[in-house]
What we know:
By secondary structure, the chain is of the alpha/beta class. It folds into two domains: 6-256, Aspartate Aminotransferase, domain 2; 259-380, Aspartate Aminotransferase, domain 1, CATH 3.90.1150. Helix content is 38%, strand content 14%. It has 13 helices and 14 strands. A seven-stranded mixed β-sheet has the order 1-9-8-5-4-2-3, sandwiched between helices. α4 (58-73) runs parallel beside α5 (90-97) and α9 (259-276) packs parallel to α13 (369-381). The two termini are 22 Å apart. The site of pyridoxal-5'-phosphate has 15 residues, from α4 and α5. Pyridoxal-5'-phosphate binds next to α4 and α5.
Amino acid sequence: MKYQDLKRVNDSFGEELFNTVRDVIKGGWYVQGREVELFEHEFAEYVGTKYCVGVGNGLDALTLVLMSWKELLGWNDGDEVILPANTFIATAIAVFRAGLVPVLTEPHTQNATIDESLLPSLITEKTRAIIPVHMYGKMCEMDVINKLAKKHNLKVLEDACQAHGAIYNSYNGLELSSLFGKRAGNNADAGSFSFYPGKNLGGIGDGGAITTNDADLAEMVRMKANYGSKEKYVHSVMGVNSRLDEIQAAVLRVKLRRLDSDNIRRREIAKYYTEHICHPAIELLPFTNDGSHVYHVYAVKCKNRDYLRDILKKNGIDTIIHYPTPIHKQDAFKNELKRLNIDKTYVLPVSETWGNDELSIPISQSMADSDVMKVVDCINQNIF
Ligand SMILES: *Cc1c(COP(=O)(O)O)cnc(C)c1O
């Protein structure tokens, strides 16, 4: 059993994906065309923001927002951005690429989202922004983070690369509905998305987008993603080439229509796992049923993680570790700090425990019930 069978996911669309790709090829227009424009409208409407700008990938979506704020707000090189140490390296690389300095902090122990209670102690004169990462598809405590940011005049950028479709505050005590809450990407000053094939909304190659209600930011990101240009051959700011292409946009438009039902299926699988996995060596995370978790990853914690992983592998079940090495332990990060003459040693035991104990078991909208049960049985029947 694959960790995630992308062929099965995409095959389930029948001829629809082939037809839309064929139409793009036959249309003869491959970047900055109608499909991207339509996708940007549809995704903005879905997320609930005024603007969406398609870009090349998730890393660029993060980088371009930071670069744009730096340009618009006059931030300096070396200004600081707070983010969790247990995220994918892209979040930290984006900060460095924008000429800013990542300041790392801890996640919670019971779920992998940033521990908002630690944030006040990290804010300095140089702090400009916070990047809450909706790790594994679970949304961070945005109300608390936004309130703090407002108090200190900081920007908040949601790293929503794992949380397409998640809804914060979607439960009114009786009903679950997107009417009550806001989608990931619409809970802060801006949101960044990746459409890497394995994400909850994934293309057939790289892709990304930013969402925001801020017209100036949207315009600056659009310029910077296109060589700093709004008008052809007029370059008013420094830029890069990072554009969503027509084929990806066309595929994403088809797949966006199923995102909500895909996320419901993921949540159903997560519920089954949480109710049925029962093993003395395995710690399950509390199940979240209120829409604020779209289960991009189903994470369990196990002190014997590598042993558990071997057992599953021997039974034909693939797993992944998200992520074995926290950012402060990565050479790329340490060397970059050194290069910037920043002498700082991080001690982040909660992040390290996640790195040591976390195992992601198979989860995907295309998983059959029998596969889900097989994973449960395999875990429960093995004594260690
Ligand atoms: C996938 C991911 C990214 C980067 O996305 P790419 O499209 O691969 O560049 C950034 N942050 C998080 C949390 C991610 O999971």
